[in-house]
Amino acid sequence: MRPSRRLASVTVAVAVFGVLALPYEARPHARVHTGERPAAEPFGATCMTRVTGSRVTAHCHNPYPGTDRVSLHVECARWWDLDGDGDPVEAGPAQTVRLTGRCWKEVGSAWVSHGRAS
After folding, report:
1. Which are the contacts of 101, defined by CB distance < 8 A and separation ≥ 6?
2. Using one digit for the tens of pLDDT, what is the confidence trace for 93-115?
3. Do residues 60 and 91 make contact, with C-beta atoms less than 8 angstroms apart?
4. Could you state, in order of their start, the residue ranges of all structural domains in the chain?
5. DSSP 8-state symbol, 28
6. Mean pLDDT, rounded, of the chain
7. 49: left (phi > 0), else alpha (psi -120 to 50), else beta?
8. What is the DSSP pairing of strand 84-85 with strand 46-52?
9. Cβ-count burial of 64 within 10 angstroms (0-12 exposed, 13-18 middle, 19+ buried)?
């Protein structure tokens, strides 16, 4: 047995009218996700590193309100020379800190790591 076309038309009309009769807030809406994340608070000191012979000096300035824990890491060029990892130093808001390290002979590389203070 086949339902009549008239019954099908009436059913569709009732369904559409039922949705349109709802207040705007109660109607279903598509959710649009832009993929944007909430803006994170700016963080991190800006560091400038200088290698002079076997000595390394880094100056880190923190322009942000959060405290940054900076640490100097020195990798020596010679395999027998000991690499150095400095203790973390807190760079507070609008504060500049100086970090130093050295090798016995040549410096292979040097970098500064950052971390949020707890």
Report:
1. 55, 56, 72, 73, 74, 84, 86, 110
2. 999 999 999 999 999 999 999 99
3. yes
4. 46-116
5. -
6. 82
7. beta
8. unpaired
9. middle
Paired tokens of 24: 């705007």
Token pair 């824990």: residue: 69
Reported as a pLDDT band with limits 50, 70 and 90, residue 27 is: low
Residue type, 96: T
DSSP-H helix ranges across the chain: 5-20
User: What are the pLDDT digits (tens) for 30-62?
Assistant: 565 566 666 678 899 999 999 999 999 999 999
46-116 under CATH 3.30.420.40, yes or no: no
